[in-house]
Amino acid sequence: MFFAVTVTLSLVGLYVAYDIHPNVLLRDPNATARQPEYYGLVSNLGILAWTSAAAISLYSGLLLRRSGGAPISRILLTGGAFTALLCLDDLFMLHEGLLARIGVSEVPLLVTYAVLAVLWVAVSVRRLMATEWMLLLIALAAMAGSVLIDLVNVPLPGQLLAEDMLKFTGILFWVAYFVRLSWQSMRWIALKAAE
Q1: E-strand spans in the chain?
Q2: How far apart are the first and last CA of the chain?
Q3: pTM of this prediction?
Q4: Cβ neighbours for 133, distance < 8 A, ≥ 6 positions apart
Q5: How confident is the model over 2-37, as pLDDT tens digits?
Q6: What is the H or E stretch that residue 97 is in?
Q7: Pick from 73, 81, 53: which is nearest to 186 by CA?
Q8: What is the number of structural domains in the chain?
Q9: Residue 61, domain extent
Q10: H or E element: which one contains 158?
Q11: With contact defined as beta carbons under 8 Å apart, do 74 and 176 qualify?
């Protein structure tokens, strides 16, 4: 209820302060822009995948922490939080649109994400090596390839397809890693409870 009231009041506030009509924020973007339903299909699938990975990781991490599995719970909780951040960036096009509109280059934000990812891996490397780390490595490599193509920005045939499919592939391997780790953690909790 609190969330619904907050969103409603925010919609009214945006309308009063910035003349942004609530319909623009309530309706599906493709319906608002009068575009076919399939526009942005792969992007939307990516958002769903990010959201799934974040929710599953955070939920599993919290359950695991309560059950005494702190080392892996830290990987799930911090990884889930980072995934949620990446999801929000992708959903609201922060590094591609919003920051550019306010005069900020996307490079500092992408570097920040890279630094966060490297720190996350560095802090957890021993624990990560005990997991199915190859899925994570493929995810990071694919996403790095996507970012590299984006930053180089030399117009080549198929450049956009390569960039976006590397990103989508990275997201899917990222999700696979966190879903598998969460599933294994839930099995550990069930086995511990059965003792």
Answers
A1: none
A2: 40
A3: 0.89
A4: 177
A5: 889 998 898 888 889 888 888 888 888 888 889 999
A6: none
A7: 73
A8: 2
A9: 40-194
A10: none
A11: no
